Amino acid sequence: MQASYLAVALSLFSVMAIAQTEPNPEQSLNNSAAARVSDMPPSAAPAESSSEAPLVQDQSAQGSRARPLTEQERQVIIHKEVQLILNKMSRAVRELDYQGLVTFEFDNHVDSMRISHKVIDGVEHESLVQLNGARREVRSVGRGANCTAIGEHLLRGASMRLGERILRLWDLYQYSILGRQRIADRDALLLGVKPRDEHRYGYVIAVDRETALPLMLELVGGANKVRERFQFVDLKLGADVEFAPEQAADKLVEQVDRSHLCSDREQLPEVHKTRQTWEAAWLPEGFVFSGQQASKAGGDQIMYTDGLNALSIFVQPASEEQVIIGTTHRGATSVVMSKMSLGQQLYTVTAVGEIPGGSLRQIAESVRSKTR
Fold it and tell me: DSSP character for 297?
């Protein structure tokens, strides 16, 4: 999550999505809930459920009779239940008024921040202020609360067409319900989201049982290692929330505009109409194009998402002396820098995303000019 501070992709708070932040190439947690993911079978029932197996009606030739659910039926029920919760969570992040103190942990480092989100006359106002280290604030004002980005559509259960195949998020991730936990003095339901391949990370998400707002998010890599953790430590909701961005002469303020990447309709935006001059020839299954825009450095930025994870690729003209090749990591965020030649012109290609570095390098090295 981190050329800025929060991620993607889940786009937990849209103002801080990694897919919208241009990288600067120069620049194991305790008490984790992640350990529960591998310890619990994917068909595990919610903690508050009865210990007895749920019953369905078996319409057999011998007549209708009750029977225990099969493992496959239990998994279908769990997947549908978790997908419904993720849908509610995605809407809560966009539509509720909330304000609080959060911690963001990565690489044995902890940042503290103040986050504010308020919908005023149907328009989102967001602010994220860093409370330790450099004085920095990221603001986003002007995005309609009904403006839904592609990743949010996928998170809410929309299907994606890949050639002849139609996929949903649960085809890429295995869901489980891990139990309940108390976070920021609120009761939360703990969800496990485990990838079905090696090209993406998993999540443990604590969702507020009353509002569906995510109270904690752990991004989980190989060997069940928590790469990043975001968590509320104090939270206000509703009428108690005020939105008044702080003014300070020595504070770096960054404005973020993401309105061009969304749709007001309850369907996927028609992203194929977006001007696209570059493309990744190889992507992990389930990643879809989510937009292209000019980068701050004068090149182009193309974006992809699978609904939970997001990545950005920056393509910029360069000379041989300007090219940097290599891979860096910060928490769960990988940055891969490579080069590409097109005719007589040399380009730098920088891929940034919260996916394993090896997979991100494959993506970066597959970038090519897109012809229509």
Answer: T
Residues 6 or more apart whose CB falls under 8 angstroms from that of 285 comprise 162, 167, 172, 197, 199
Structure letter (DSSP) for residue 354: S
Instruction: Round to whole Å and give the CA distance between 271 and 281.
Output: 17
CATH number of the domain within which 181 lies: 2.50.20.10
Q: Which amino acid is at 59?
A: Q
Residue 30, C-beta contacts closer than 8 angstroms, at least 6 positions apart: none
Residues 40 and 173 in one domain: yes
- β-partners of residue 206 are 190, 216
Residue 248 sits in the same domain as residue 288: no
Structure token pair of residue 348: 């730098």
> What is the domain-level CATH number for residue 319?
3.30.200.100
Give the residue from 75, 42, 343, 356 showing the smallest Cα distance to 223: 356
Q: What is the pLDDT of residues 298-345, one digit of tens each?
A: 789 898 989 888 899 999 998 887 778 889 988 889 999 998 988 888
Write out the residue range of the structural domain in which residue 152 sits. 14-48+67-255
